[in-house]
Amino acid sequence: MTDVMTRGSMTRKALSVAWPAMTESFFVALAGMIDTMMVSALGSYAVAAVGLTNQPKFIGLTIFFGINVAVSALVARRKGEKRQDTANQILLTAIILACIACVAVSVLFVVFAPWMMQLAGSNADTHEASVIYFRIIMGGTFFNVITMVINSAQRGSGNTKLSMTTNLTSSVVNIIFNYLLIEGHFGFPRWGIRGAAIATVLGTVVAAGMAVSSLFRRNSYVRIPLMRDLKLRFSRSCARSIWNLALNTSLENIAARVGFLATAMIAARLGTDEFAAHNIGMSILGLGFSFADGMQVAAVALAGESLGAGEKEMAKRYGSICQRIGLLISFILAMLLFFGGRWFYGLYFKEPHILEMGELICRYLILIVLLQISQIIFTGCLRAAGDVRYVLYAAMISIAGIRTLSTLLMVNVLGWGLHGVWLGILADQLSRFIMVSLRFRQGKWVDLKI
Predict the structure, then answer these.
(1) Burial class of residue 82, CB neighbours in 10 A (0-12, 13-18, 19+)
(2) pLDDT 10s digits, 193-211
(3) How far is the CA of 271 from the CAs of 224, 276, 282, in angstroms?
(4) Could you tell me if 299 and 22 are in contact, meaning their C-beta atoms sit under 8 angstroms apart?
(5) Alpha-carbon span 120 to 268, nearest angstrom
(6) The organism sits in which domain of life (predicted)?
């Protein structure tokens, strides 16, 4: 009876941490889809042009994703160890590191935008529009990076509601200015794709302001007044801790993005309509990821805090609880895709041949989401413990290796078109699921120190 009650209370705690993160990730993904829907009014070329920028943008953000994972894991662990001063010093150090890196990344990606879009697979229809969009997005990366780093610390401390609030507000601002600037309403200029990019940056500016203001609240676990009172400064030891985790996570992201970029390049060469349909499929996959990401946030915070307190079995149980919740969500998403896939594509396109492509992609998505959500939650547990090197190897083997090679074989050699692209994605998700689930069930990850 005690075990049942304990399991129930742990499930409630996991849900209390996860629901704001899931809500946040879902609405951010939904806002991205609405963004694409608004851009689709300009034509399928515009959907394809925006889609071309996704993987190069994420490659540029790779180092910051690594820093975010490190900050979340370290803050959660230090909270479990009752070391609030060190948790605050970790955030301060991470902000300084991220700001320096951001300047370099923004300059490089703005200058080399035309070459990057060509590498991503742009053609005469999409090149100019994709370069314009990419330069504006990467030029405004600073605000996005600041928000990401602060929110990662807040999530690590268990405060997922703040991150939800900032990103929901950012999404609303983005959608409002999309409406005003893409086609020009209420006297605003009709800027097309340029307007969509500016709207996205304006949303991140608002989010950054909210994230920074959260650091002045008395009830915040990480806050500027405490940093000032303790006279905290940039710490080399904290930087090393961040680097040790961020390096492997960043390399993992690079491997992932190289694989994703290769898939996008192969899909882009199938044609503008095929690539547009593929991008909507990736947006749907991103919607599934949003739920997985929410549960992963809960797994990182709760497993990390449990490990910091020396409760290894509790860390394992939190991971299992989060995975079971995620599995239930994935079944619901699979049913929605089964019955509503064509309808969903109809929100973006009216052409019958593109709708048929959408139905084909949704068949693969039904299987993929069942694997994806559990895989991401298991990965979050491993990251929380510091087992980032194994996650790196899994990503290199699966995404950069299996996904890329199988897609090349099935599309370029066997000529299977979109079937080949999505079979490659399915093969990647299956192999990653097998690798990280086996590692999680072995249980050795709970013995690592960070």
Answers:
(1) exposed
(2) 899 899 999 999 999 999 9
(3) 51, 9, 16
(4) no
(5) 8
(6) Bacteria
Q: Amino acid identity of 57?
A: K
The angle subtended at Cα 403 by Cα 397 and Cα 406, nearest 5°, is 115
Please give the model's pTM, rounded to 2 decimal places: 0.74
Rounded average pLDDT over 227-233: 87
Write the DSSP symbol of residue 17: H
State the DSSP code for 411: I
d(CA 253, CA 192): 31
Of residues 358, 221, 375, 352, the one with CA closest to residue 289: 375
pLDDT band at 419 (very low <50, low <70, confident <90, very high): very high
Residues 6+ apart with CB under 8 A from 208: 142, 143, 144, 146, 147
The angle subtended at Cα 373 by Cα 60 and Cα 26, nearest 5°, is 65
Which of 249, 284, 246 is closest to 361 using CA atoms? 284
Angle between helix axes 84-111 and 113-120 (nearest 10 degrees) is 90
**Whats the size of the chain, residue-wise?**
450
Confidence band of 4 (pLDDT split at 50, 70, 90): very low
Please state, in angstroms and rounded to a whole number, the distance separating the CA atoms of residues 106 and 135: 9
Burial track 297-327 (b if 16+ CB lie within 10 A, e otherwise): bbbbbbbbbbbbeebbebbbbbbbbbbebbe
Work out how many domains the chain is built from and give that number.
1
- Please tell me the distance from the alpha carbon of residue 230 to that of residue 86, in angstroms, as a whole number: 10
- Domain carrying residue 166: 2-447
